[in-house]
Design goal:
This protein has two domains: 7-232, Rossmann fold (3-Layer(aba) Sandwich), CATH 3.40.50.720; 238-275. Helices cover 45% and strands 14% of the residues. The chain is built from nine helices and seven strands; from the N terminus they run βαββαβαβαβαααβαα. A seven-stranded parallel beta sheet has the order 3-2-1-4-5-6-7, with helices on both faces. Helix 1 (16-27) crosses helix 7 (202-213), helix 2 packs parallel to helix 3 (90-118) and helix 3 (90-118) packs parallel to helix 4 (138-157). The longest helix has 29 residues, at 90-118. The termini are far apart. The structure holds NADP nicotinamide-adenine-dinucleotide phosphate (NAP). Residues 12, 14-18, 36-38, 52-55, 76-79, 99, 125, 127, 169, 171-172, 174, 176 line the site of NADP nicotinamide-adenine-dinucleotide phosphate.
Length: 276
């Protein structure tokens, strides 16, 4: 298996995206430690849990210092509440930057000696929010943009021993998706905006993380891998009145209906040929 004999830490690996990454790593043969402030509600088969607040640098140092070895660090813990910029003061926004940018730096520095010794890899978990305006989560978007930049610099400074890459995620279906998109209907509506017709599953992200951590990506460092199902079509195309009905703005159902009609037409032709 791709990660046989490797030891991996997945921060925030107790639920959501992180749990998907932890499961994929365990399935690929790695020994996995997940860390978070609270234990997982559902025990993750093949992963050990360690209680850790990533915003506490002393605790982070002690945690990595106590590990016997480490080959892969996945900086996954992150997130933000919905907050317009002017709703709270800068100190509250700084907490978001602390979790999404400072904590991955703190953890990477604490893991550095282990990773150098092992010839290891760091995988950052970024977001498409870092590459476009992020209204309602501006500090988060800024932190994720910073995370990708940090990863690119880290990849240069820590080469050739350590590879550093970023997974740039679009929307992922997790236990908390309803908070972001508003229940099953909201998730379905949002899914229709994605070219591949659905949100990512945590296992999709897990597969991409295993790839970046494995020898299959031995020459990949300082890279950003988009895991967003084709991305966000530009909003102006939805509003423009020219070129209506072209494939890129055709919602998934319409495409399915069209395929269904084509299939029925084909079947009718076949019947006609057979029965005359
Ligand atoms: N879900 C999406 O659609 C999406 C899209 C783009 C990018 N992402 C990125 O994917 C990553 C995971 O997102 P998610 O949706 O799976 O989030 P989530 O469900 O909220 O899970 C976050 C994880 O991080 C842990 N965590 C949070 N604060 C922590 C702290 N101070 N110290 C230690 N652990 C902490 C949480 O556990 P505790 O609360 O118990 O500590 C939990 O295990 C994040 O970096 C997020 O930005 C997600």
């Amino acid at each position: 298996m791709e990660l046989n004999g490797k030891v991996a830490v997945v921060t925030g690996g107790t639920r959501g995206v992180g749990a998907g990454i932890a499961r994929a790593f365990a399935a690929a043969g790695a020994e996995v430690v997940v860390c978070a402030r609270r234990p997982p509600e559902v025990l993750l088969k093949g992963a050990e849990f360690a209680r850790l607040d990533l915003r506490d640098p002393d605790a982070v140092g002690a945690f990595f210092g106590a590990l016997p070895r480490l080959d892969v660090l996945v900086n996954n813990a992150g997130g933000t509440p919905y907050r317009r910029l002017a709703d709270v003061d800068a100190a509250r926004h700084a907490r978001v930057v602390e979790l999404n940018l400072v904590a991955p730096l703190t953890a990477s520095l604490a893991a550095y000696e282990h990773l150098k010794r092992a010839g290891g890899a760091v995988v950052m978990v970024g977001s498409v929010s870092g590459g476009r305006p992020s209204p309602g989560s501006a500090a988060y978007g800024a932190a994720k943009a910073g995370l990708e930049s940090l990863a690119r610099s880290m990849a240069v400074e820590w080469a050739p021993e350590i590879r550093v890459n970023t997974l740039v995620l679009g929307m992922v279906r997790t236990e908390l998706s309803h908070l972001h998109y508003g229940g099953a209907e909201g998730v379905a509506a949002v899914s229709r905006t994605v070219p591949l017709g659905r949100l990512a599953e945590p296992s999709d992200v897990g597969a991409a993380a295993v790839f970046l951590a494995s020898d299959a990506a031995a020459y990949i460092s300082g890279a950003s891998l988009l895991v967003h199902g084709g991305g966000e079509p530009p909003a102006f195309l939805g509003a423009a009145t020219a070129n209506r009905g072209t494939r890129h703005e055709m919602p998934r159902e319409k495409r399915r209906e069209k395929r269904q009609e084509e299939e029925w037409a084909r079947q009718e032709e076949e019947q006609e040929e057979e029965w005359g």
